[in-house]
Write a structure and sequence with these properties.
This protein has a two-stranded antiparallel ribbon with strand order 1-2. It has 11 helices and 2 strands. It is mostly helical and 213 residues long. The protein has 3 domains: 56 residues, no CATH class; 82 residues; 67 residues, no CATH class.
């Protein structure tokens, strides 16, 4: 669905409308792609030295950063005993997807100690950017001390990118190398995306995990 935007006539056209009692009408532009075309067409009628009325603010990035900081401050101002649901509902009030994701990730980090691994992954599904989802799946997995091979397998299957999946599984194998069974190690290695990593994981399990517990 295209966003409705309104483009007002260039400033130089206001002089031509001075003799009229009616103010210049805004031109309706149905999509962002048509804005540049409309601006170019209108600016061709201006005298030299006059530019179009539409301009992108130079501090757009600064405004976005300030908005994000304000949203995070709004979230952290909630009572300490507030639930994760309350925090996530507040996060949904953010103005754009990036701010919503950052607010939801702040909620997860703040409430992680009270969340189960499954609940944490469920909340991660609500993130709107894949890069944030991948980051927080790893966060959900490794922020608990009692890491289990089954949790590693579940998190790995939910990863969208093969490189991230393999990196997560390697981290699991290194953290579990003193407690994991050889068969479990081989099963995790078999979940890797790239054959090179699968072969390395198989060799690692057979050579490093010497005793079957």
């Amino acid at each position: 669905m295209e966003t409705e935007l309104f483009l007002f006539a260039p400033l130089c056209s206001l002089g031509r409308a001075a003799g009229s009692l009616r103010a210049p009408r805004p031109a309706f532009v149905p999509s962002v792609a048509k804005i540049n075309t409309a601006v170019a067409l209108k600016s061709n009628h201006c005298r030299p030295g006059r530019g179009p009325a539409l301009a992108i603010p130079s501090n757009a990035n600064e405004v976005n950063v300030k908005g994000t900081l304000l949203m995070l401050a709004f979230l952290l101002s909630a009572p300490a005993h507030a639930s994760i649901e309350f925090c996530l509902n507040r996060a949904g009030l953010a103005a754009d997807p990036l701010q919503r994701d950052q607010a939801r990730m702040a909620c997860l980090r703040h409430h992680r100690a009270r969340l189960s691994f499954g609940s944490c992954l469920k909340i991660v599904k609500g993130l709107e950017y894949s890069i944030h989802s991948e980051e927080m799946r790893s966060y959900c997995l490794f922020q608990k001390n009692a890491l289990k091979p089954s949790q590693c397998a579940r998190a790995a299957r939910s990863m969208e990118y093969g490189s991230n999946r393999d990196a997560l599984l390697w981290s699991c194998l290194k953290r579990l190398n003193l407690t994991i069974e050889r068969q479990e190690c081989l099963q995790l290695g078999d979940l890797m995306t790239f054959s090179f990593n699968k072969n390395r994981a198989s060799s690692y399990c057979l050579e490093e995990i010497r005793s079957v517990r």
